[in-house]
Design the sequence.
């Protein structure tokens, strides 16, 4: 099996394929031939011979020059960057290992808000022993109601990390599913058409929806209005789920208390966006899954998947 690897990332060092990843492959897949490319020219020249490719992105027109190709694998969870002919039946293996890293990011953000870390840091800069002011802002995750909109593989891992804090979970899903093993009597799964009813009982709303036409604009100004004024919204799915103007409005009008935003309608987030300057917003540049172990985890997951491919 001839595998072509082109995993060079322009921004995140940990998302570049390294020698240790090649060793990880060779140890587990002896007999596979592996070629690593560092630029698209090299990749495209070698593509016609490849039987499997591992890439960050793939363009539909490239498929014409892939007579041998049996599968494409990508570390990305979302379907945004690999584009193949719709009827071609070419399997695309998307990464499914992101949950734990994203859960750490969401939990970190939840504690940032609950423990008033921003206020503490601001007052620290002023050398203020501001016990009264800061203590008034501190809350807890204990017995808080956490709603995860998009309760798939990643959403369920995120939900799990909130359970030891005594949170009550609601997973919102499009289709029926068995509750995960960590659920107790205070947790529930609801169908997407019940979302509006769940929002007024939500302290922390975590959005984990994929991009695409089906989710675009799904969360409207009306949905934001249903949330309690003290609630926090987290978005680690895709920025198309609401219009940026609607979340800005919800934050400005204090329909919600704060937001941790990792994904945006337009990325990079334009300098003109009002979100940058909002006190109650914590922004990350689409990095909720970043980790030094990112590619190690991806390869660990991929090896058994490709070992048994014909
Ligand atoms: C992904 C992402 O889809 O980082 O993997 O958004």
Sequence:
């Amino acid at each position: 099996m001839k595998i072509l690897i082109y995993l060079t990332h322009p921004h995140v060092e940990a998302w570049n394929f390294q020698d240790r990843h090649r060793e990880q492959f060779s140890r587990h897949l002896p007999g596979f031939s592996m070629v690593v490319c560092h630029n698209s020219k090299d990749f495209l020249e070698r593509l016609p011979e490849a039987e499997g490719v591992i890439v960050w992105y793939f363009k539909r027109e490239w498929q014409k020059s892939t007579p041998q190709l049996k599968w494409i694998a990508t570390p990305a969870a979302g379907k945004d960057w690999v584009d193949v002919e719709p009827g071609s039946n070419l399997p695309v293996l998307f990464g499914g290992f992101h949950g734990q890293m994203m859960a750490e990011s969401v939990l970190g953000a939840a504690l940032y808000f609950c423990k008033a870390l921003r206020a503490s840091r601001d007052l620290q800069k002023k050398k203020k022993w501001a016990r009264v002011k800061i203590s008034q802002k501190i809350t807890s995750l204990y017995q808080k109601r956490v709603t995860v909109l998009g309760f798939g593989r990643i959403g369920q891992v995120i939900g799990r990390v909130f359970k030891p804090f005594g949170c009550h979970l609601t997973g919102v899903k499009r289709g029926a599913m068995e509750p995960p093993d960590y659920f107790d009597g205070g947790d529930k799964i609801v169908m997407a058409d019940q979302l509006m009813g769940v929002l007024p009982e939500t302290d922390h709303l975590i959005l984990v929806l994929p991009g695409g036409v089906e989710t675009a604009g799904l969360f409207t100004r009306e949905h934001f209005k249903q949330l309690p004024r003290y609630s926090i919204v987290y978005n680690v799915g895709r920025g198309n789920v609401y219009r940026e103007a609607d979340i800005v409005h919800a934050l400005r009008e204090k329909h919600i208390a704060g937001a941790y935003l990792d994904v945006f309608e337009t990325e990079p987030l334009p300098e003109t966006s009002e979100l940058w300057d909002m006190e109650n917003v914590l922004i990350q540049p689409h990095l909720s899954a970043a980790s030094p172990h990112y590619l190690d985890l991806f390869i660990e997951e991929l090896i058994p998947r490709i070992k048994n491919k014909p």
In short: The mean pLDDT is 97.
